[in-house]
Predict the 3D structure of the following.
Amino acid sequence: MRQVHVSDYLKCTAPIWLDTKVTLNPTTTLSMYRKIPDDLQKTAECKLNEVTSRIENDITQMKEWIAKQPHLNIEIDDQFILTLLRCCKFSLQRTKEKIDTYYTARSIMPEIFSNRDPYLPEIQHLFNSRCIALPLPNLDPDDGSRIIFINYSSSLDPNLVSLRNLDKVNYMILDILIREDDDMIINGLKLITHCKDLSVRFLNELTPLYMKRHVYLVNAFPLRLQAVRVVNCPAPFAFAYSIFKTFTTSKIGQRMIMVSETNVPELCRQSPHLFPKEMGGNNGSIQELSGTWKRKVESYREWFLQEEAKKSDESLRTEPPKTALDLFGADGTFRKLEID
């Protein structure tokens, strides 16, 4: 795998997530960001209110704000600040909130953001079962968004992994994407989830607390979610899905659609670009992409281990510290919900 070093960083003019990795020295703060192709730059200006001549000033303002936050004693490179600005359509206030939420999530959710060594057995099991978020190679031709496909196959063993293990790996992949994939940052992403073979034994994990935490994670990441399609969802999980939607904003909820098994062949025929070939589409192969992303995540091992320290220090927050209990409350179960 070709390495892109700091000296080459500014020269990158195309999305680099498939076959390269930006190698950053964690002790060095970058004062640079990637150049993107002219057509993507025009899209950023149109969709995200990006003004090229103001980028450096906006980044500087964000750095100055971060330096004044005692609970955010974190060095953030210019490229990631630009990503956050783009996600928030260059609203400085929204970007501040996104920065705070992202690093707070890393602090209050250790089950997702700690122990992210790609060689841990439970993480290797997920790669080998091919039940991970797979960014498909071709963009949606309609709007340029990145398509991410998750296939919950029967090889996912509830005795070896939990849904939180799966979340951990998926957000490791997203952490790479938000640092490398300019198309996804600017044009957004579409999530396709195939649930037909998901074991019902995972249902006990889908508590209201789990759902609240998951929604918080989605909001914490600098992502522009354009659509969610849940395909072949078994009835018990369909109920859980309906509960999950109640925790989302109305805007996101409207973009979440379930597709029944009888409608899948027609959807694949009409939109083959949304699916890998194993589902009847023409956008890559689950088998090949699983191997590609296993190697990709493993190549980031040192970065994940070093990045674990980057989180908010709630003991130093000038306002009352944020805790998981304050943000999410106590846990509950579906049995209680059904009785109530």
